[in-house]
Automatic annotation (TrEMBL):
Its main location: membrane. Coiled coil: none annotated. It is a multi-pass membrane protein. It is found in: Membrane. The keyword Transport applies. PANTHER family: AMINO-ACID PERMEASE BAT1, TRANSPORTER, PUTATIVE (EUROFUNG)-RELATED. Pfam families: AA_permease_2. This is Amino acid transporter. Gene3D superfamilies: Amino acid/polyamine transporter I (1.20.1740.10).
Amino acid sequence: MNTSFDESVDQIAAQKLEQLGYQQELKRSRGLIHTLFMNSRSISIAFGLTAPIATSLVGGGPATMIWGWVLLCIFSQPLALSLAEICSKYPTSGGAYYWCFRLASPRHRRLLSWINGWLTMVGVWTSSLSVIFGTAQLIVAEVGIFRPEWIATPWETYLIYLGITLVAGTFAIFFNHKLPTIEILSACWTILGLTVMLICLSVKAQVGRHPASFALGHFDPSASGWNPGWTFFIGLLPFVMVYSLVNFVAMSEEVHNPSIQVPKAIALSVPVGAIYGLVLLLPIVFTLPDITTLLAAPGGQPIGIMFELIMGSRGGGFGMWFIILIVGIFCSISISCAASRATWSFARDRAIPFHKTISKVNHRLGDVPMNAYILSTGIQVLLALIFLGSSTAFNAFVGVAVICLGASYAMPVAILLLNGRKDMANVPFPLGKWGPFLNAFSILWVCFLTVLSSMPAVIPVTKVSMNYASVVFVGFGGISAVWYLLNGRLYYNGPRVPEED
C-alpha cells in the first residue's frame, strides 16, 4: 500500500471521526496486522495461559485446560462479533461508553454512558495490572529454580512489579512512534516461541509422556474443595482474561480505516487465539509433571518448576520460561498503552477529575497522552498493594477486569437488542439475521462470567484465599457514584454529537 493511499484513507477516517464528535489528535499508524497482534488474544495467549496455570491445575487439571479453553473460545465468539458490528459504526477510543450514549434513548443515555465509562476505566486499569503483575510473578518463579531456598516476600514481588511497570512506561511514553514495530516483533516472537516450545516440550518430556486418556480426560476436583461441576468452571478463570477486547477498541483512533480493520481484528482474534492456545496447551498436558508437586511450588507459581521438570534441566526450563517472559513484557507495554488511551478518551469527555489536564496530548513525545498514562499507571500501582495482604491478588485483579469489562461490553449489546437492532442498518460489519441470537447469547455469557469471576478458587475461604474482586468492584462503583453526584451530573453531558449540536 503506497503512502498516498494511506494518507487518503486516514483523511477519510479523520472526517468520520469528526462526524462522531472528535478531532483527530493521535497518529494513525496501525493496520489490521498491528491491531490483531497487539497485546490481546492472539499475542497474550502464551502468557495468559501459563502465568496463572496454578488455578487451572486446582480447577481439575488437563481436561479443564483443554476443553475449558475450547469452550471459552466458542462461547466468546458471539460477544466478539456483537462488538465488532457496533464498532464498525462507531470506531472511537471511547468504545463501549460512547456506544451506550449513541444507542440509548436521550432520557437515559447520559447516566448509562457514565456508568459504562467507569466500568471500562476500572476494567482497563485492572486488566493492565493483572498482566504486569503476572509478569512479575513469572520472574519470582524463575528465581526459585536457581535459588529454591529463596521465597519472595510480598514486598519483593511488589518491587519487581514496579520495575516491570517502569520498563513498560519507558517504551509506551518515549518510544510511542516505535510501538507498531514493537507489536510486529511481539507477534514474530510469539509465533517463533510457540513453535520452539511445541518441539522442545514434546521431544524432551523428561518426566514421561501421558496417554491421550490422561492429557484430554484427566480431571481431579479435589484440590479446589468445590463440587466437580463448579471446579471445572473455576479452572476457566485464567483463560477468561485472555479474551479482553479493550485493546482493539481503545486504539481505534490510531488505526487506518478503523471501521473495517478494527472489527476484522476483533472477529479474527478468537479463532486465531484458539489455535495459539491449543498449540501451547497440548504439549504441556501430554508432558505434565506431577500436579501435587506443581501445586506445592513456592509462592504458588509452578511454571518455573514445571518447565524445569519437563526439560530435565534448569537451563532448559530457563529457556522455556524466557520465551514466556518476553511475551509478558510485550504484553505489559501494549496493554498499559491501551489503558492510557481509554483513560484519555474518557477524560476528553469531562468524566474524570481534572479532565482538562488528563486529556492533554504531548505532541513533543509523538502524540502521547502522557498525563492519562501517568494517572492510569498510578492507580494500578496503588491497587497492586492489595497483594501485600492477599497472595491471591492476581485472581482478584483478573476478576475485577472480567466483571467490569464484561459488563461494559454487555451494556451496549443489551441496549442494541432492546432497540430492535434498528441502529445497525447498513453498517460495514453486519451480523444480519444472526444478530439477535448472537447478541442475546453474549449477554447471558457475560452474566455467567460475572458470577464466576467473583468466586474464590478454593474453599474453605480464608482472608488470604478470598477473591477480593467484588470488594474492588463495589469500591470503584461507590467512587464513581459520589463523583457523579458532586460533579458529573453538572458537567458530564456525554460524548459530543455534532449533528445534534
